[in-house]
Amino acid sequence: MALFGLGKTRESLLGKLTRAVAGRSVVDEDVLDALEEALIGADVGVDTAVSLIEAVQERVAKDKYLGEEELKGLIRETLLATMTGRASGPSTWAHLGPHVILVVGVNGVGKTTSIGKLAHYYQREGHSVLLGAADTFRAAAVDQLKIWASRVGVPIVEKGMNTDPAAVAYAAVEEGKKQAKDIVLIDTAGRLHNKVNLMNELSKIKRVMEKVVPNAPHEVLLVLDASTGQNAVNQAVEFSKVTEVTGLILTKMDGTAKGGVALAIANTLQIPVRFVGVGEAKEDLVPFDATAYVNTLFA
Q: What angle do CA 40, 287, 214 make, to 5 degrees?
């Protein structure tokens, strides 16, 4: 399995780039159009694709011709410059009390599974973790999180479905503080069709948690399904309107040719990618590294 699960994306993108320049003695409008199509097909985003094409045009104006390897190298260097400072691995913290992480995202993107994997990751890093099942509108979400809590061996605070999500969040943070846990991970309902309700709910959750631990939540991680491409970018934009998203988790990177979506999101919102999901196992949530990501894309 390729690093970050980029095998399909890399094969698709590099294959199209190779076909775009094969047998060409000059980089003309046809080549540039083919390059743009290849980039947009990998869901790097229109803005990113345009900036890359402009970089190629500028270089061609000087050197007249770029071979396939030079072209790949130029695109790689431009992408690295784009991603620098916009995407990074897990954050660090230095405040008192548990570090509270609120996890948001629409249903079906792998949010609850990502929370279980995130708990496992932080445990491996030597931190104690507690889960809060505040997605109380779906019975399956509570049950799924209980299964993950058991699987990775962490305690969970849950009150079943149809209870007040803020009450669950409050109880989880309170219990995390009582047990002197390092991290409290809170699952939330995955609704975006009614943004007013979602905004009110997240605001209420934040207010009650702050009563227990100042400035909680310290992170708001948005989970996105990379395989949905541009739709994931749209979800990121919409969630950013209702809450301050501090980082992203991209799931299903291993099963898509649209892994360039990390570039589109970085370019559009400048929200750091924290983790990527590359498989089904509990170990298959890995910290994101922008340089390694771009290098892997063009390996």
A: 110
